Structure formats: structure tokens, C-alpha cells
Amino acid sequence: MSKANVTRLAALAAALCASSLAAQADQWSDISARKELKCGTFADVPPFAAPDPKTREMVGHDVDLCNAIAKELGLTAKVTPLSVEARVPEVKLGRVDVTIANLAYTRSRGEQIQFSDPYYVAKEMLAVKASDPGTTKADYKGKRLSSTKGSTSELSIKMNGSEPVTFQDTGSAFMAVQQNKSMGMVANTMTITKLVNQSKNEGVALKMIKEPMVLQPIGIGMKKDEPALLAKVNEALYSLEKKGELDKLWSKWLGPNTEYKMTRDEKVTPLADLKFELLP
User: Fold this and answer.
1) Contact, 216 vs 123, CB < 8 A?
2) Does the N terminus or the C terminus of the chain have fewer Cβ atoms within 10 A?
3) pLDDT in tens, 158-201
4) Predicted pLDDT of residue 150
């Protein structure tokens, strides 16, 4: 073999070795090196994440959770506001390291990204006009119900055999009921609770159907095949749970002394230990 060929083979081997090492470099190593956790949240969905009217800084439960997770991992958090439908794609594309935005585990999402262990179990609830005679979700099968586009609220409407009418934000979904464009709207418990209370003073009064549309475990979304990052995020969640920090965040933004008046019954739990109907 000529000296030139030997040189080319050596160069090729070195390139393959470098490529292999690059492939083995995991996302957690990159995050740890830059000492910053890129965290995606909602752009404007209080109390999870929304701009403060006075400072324009992002505030909310999920913003605080981003900061708490980052601090637990020895990092600083860089919060990036995302639309509802961008929560999964931005993680897949690597534009954010994690998505903390009331992100429910579903079959399709589970095929695209990986989830941390759930830190609470949310409920999708239906609100209709207070004058409506319906009392169960079955009463609205085949009816037009509004929700935000690309959300689990939309999926739950389809699962109920109802017709989804979707919008970019919950305010528009709420107005659709007020303007008779839909018979009701579906959103998480805290959003529905707030809008039902709001409707008593503004527009047509609404009521919340007591039966949940679906139950949904809420976790932190990450890119698939990143076991080190998953382990670190879960480790941080369990540590924050043990310290009582997750309960403090809940009480601050969603608890009995807020307009949502919700209690946090569930703790961080492995997904396999939960019983729920998996959304598609």
C-alpha cells in the first residue's frame, strides 16, 4: 500500500473516530458545559407562564419551575416563550432543552419526545352556559366545543365524539361560547375555574361540568434518546418534591389562596404507576 493511501486511510479513521465521539456526546454534557438550561414555557397562559403587565418579564408556575429545576442542577434558566403547538417541535429541534408548559403525556407526544416522571395529574374540564341542561360530557357528544389548537383539550373533545372548534388562545375559545360559535369550551381545571368565575361578571354565565373529559399526567418534555438528561431532570424533580418546593410553587400560583383554589394531591410519580386513559 502506498504511503499516500496509508495517509488517506489514517485520515478517514480519524474522521470516523471524531464522528463517533460526537455521536456519543450527550445533551446533558452540552447543557452542563454552557451552564444554562434552555427552557420552553407557554407564551401567554397564566398562571403557568405569561408576561408580567408591569415588568414584561415572564412569570408563572412553570417559569418558577424552570428556575427551580435549573438551580437544582447547578445551572441558570433561559426561558423561551412558546405557542401551544410549538411545545413538542421546539424540543425535537433542539431549540430548547426542556419544555415545562403544562405538557401532558400522550401517545403521539411519547413517540416524538421523552417525558420526565409526572409531577401532577391534570384534568381537562368542560364549561358550558349555566342555562344549559347538560350535566355530563356524554350530553355534548356530537356538539361543537372550543379549545386551543394543538392542545390535549382538543384531543379530549375528539375522544368524546364532539366537534372541536380551535383557536390560538383560551380567550378566543371562551368568546366562541359567549358568541354561540360553540356550545362549550374545554381547558384545564384552573383555566376553566377562572373563566367560569369571570363569566359571572362578564357576558353570559358559564358552569363547569363536574365529570372530567380526561385525566392527563403532566411532565417535562425532552428530546428522545437522552438518558443522562432524563435522569438529571427526574433527580431534580424528586429532590424538589422532598424539599417541599413543588408544593410551595403550587400554593403560590394555584393554591387555596389564589383565584384557582386548587389543592395538589399528587406527588412526583413514575408514569407506569398511574392509571389513566392514554390520549392519542
Assistant:
1) yes
2) N
3) 999 999 999 999 999 999 999 999 999 999 888 898 899 889 98
4) 87
- The x, y and z cell numbers of residue 249, run together, are 410553587
Report the amino acid identity of residue 252.
Answer: K
